[in-house]
Model the fold of this input.
Amino acid sequence: MKNSTKVEQLPLAEGVRVVASNEDGLVALDKPVLVRSHPNTDDQSKPSILNAAYDHKDEVFIWQDAAGMECRAWLINRLDSPTSGILLLGLNPEVTTVIKQQFAAHKVEKVYYAIVRHRLKSMTGTWRDRLTKASKKPGRTKSAVEAVSAIARFKWLKSPKTGFAVSLIQLMPTTGRTHQLRIQCQKHGHAIVGDQTYGDFSFNREVHKETRIKRMFLHSGRTRVNYSLAGKARSFEAKSPLPEAYTTVMEYKPGLSRGVNVKREEFKSKTRLDQRRFRR
Done:
């Protein structure tokens, strides 16, 4: 199977990087926080993973290469703008369809890392919840509200002995509902730190005040999928390391970490002042 678009032709947005790809045209990108998976129809000003036009109906990015040839890349799955990490693109319709089918059948292994409030009561377990979802059926003018199943496994990794009352956990969703992990963490008393919709807002302000970091601590760290295409069995895996901000929050020491940050800023200010004096 020949791909019309090559990985090196992808017009990556600032901070977005390719972490894995294969001969079938399956590509894994590492998305920074606050970069959208695709442009919104009502606001095209905020950055998305590719600097290209986006067809919302066919879920495909479209652009022209240096030679004026049309290039396409299909979006296979999405991450919320505040979530960082791995998401997948297809460089042709065939691989896109196959991988989307694997997602629909819950056969894609996804591992997220989150910093959440408090320490979990159980080291491991499974959350099974019913979440509300608005759906509009044909012939109806108003959306109906229905309950959908949301399933995710969790694993406690560590909690700091001092500092913030938080935990670093793994989340492995079986289903893929909108905002699923964010809602489930909140429902089970462990809101994700920095979540501006479902989080603990006063605690979010405290973390920002002490660390100067303002982000939601949910990161797509690993995606793995087995599939068959053109008579060949494939295994594809992509990983993204935890952002440095995770270490800053998990290793925060009251009175010490903040003081170090202040001293660093004072040193930078003094250095800039000395440089200006020298130039004079």
